[in-house]
Amino acid sequence: MARWAGRLGLELRDLVQSGRISPETHPRVVDLGCGRGEAAIYLAKHGFQVVGVDFSSVALNEARAAASRAGVADRCRFVKGDLTASRIPGVEGPFDVVTDLGTLDDLKGEDREAMARTIKRLSGPGSLYYLWCVHHDGNLPMNLKGILLRLNPKLVPGEEEALFGDLFKIERLPSPPPSSYFAGFLMTHR
């Protein structure tokens, strides 16, 4: 399976089903690193207007076809773009919700900081930023999961505050739990 496949998490569904992220209060969404569009299509089915952004033409073509099959092509648009660029043509903020299901943590150094600037640029006061990521300090058990997670990029605890604390109030969601070495954050732009 391609790295950009299968990026819809239960935590995002919970946020929508609970009404914490609602098309009535936050109708415009940008999904950064959208892959095949699972999250974007899910959100469009629930009444949001969504722009998905990814660098992979293959993934974007699959996303467009899936949106058409799901009957949400009128509420779901997909754009090829570099999330580290100072501007993504066709993607103009501010958006009410920015979602990132495992893209920021794939980047390192200046690229990670550049994507953080993109997130800030695409949001505005009152916007929400949902981040799902691999999140641990590297102190992992010596089992298969620990070994595999050592090979993956990650955010180190506290890095979310360093990247976004200047503009966002940061809430770590209860799921996934810290013991899973993953994290979900819902951030509110001040």
Description of the molecule:
It contains six helices and seven strands; from the N terminus they run αβαβαββαβααββ. The protein is of the alpha/beta class and 190 residues long. A seven-stranded mixed beta sheet has the order 3-2-1-4-5-7-6, with helices on both faces. It is globular and about 45 Å long. The model is unreliable at 1-6 (pLDDT under 50).
Features:
alpha/beta, 31% helix, 7 strands, single chain, disordered N terminus
Q: Which consecutive residue ranges, at least 5 long each, have pLDDT under 50?
A: 1-6
Which structural category do the helix and sheet elements fall into? alpha/beta
Strand order of the largest sheet: 3-2-1-4-5-7-6
Question: What is the N-to-C order of secondary-structure elements (H for helix, E for strand)?
Answer: HEHEHEEHEHHEE
* Total DSSP E strands: 7
Largest sheet: 7 strands, mixed
Give the helix proportion (percent range). 25-40%
Output mean pLDDT.
Answer: 92
Rg calc: 16 Å
C-alpha geometry: globular
Given the structure, what is the number of helices? 6
Summarize the helices and strands and which ones pair or pack.
Elements: H1 10-17, E1 28-32, H2 38-45, E2 49-54, H3 57-70, E3 76-80, E4 97-101, H4 109-122, E5 128-134, H5 144-151, H6 159-164, E6 168-172, E7 182-189
Parallel strand pairs: 1-2, 1-4, 2-3, 4-5
Antiparallel strand pairs: 5-7, 6-7
In short:
With 190 residues, the chain is an alpha/beta fold. The chain is 31% helix and 22% strand. The protein has six helices and seven strands.
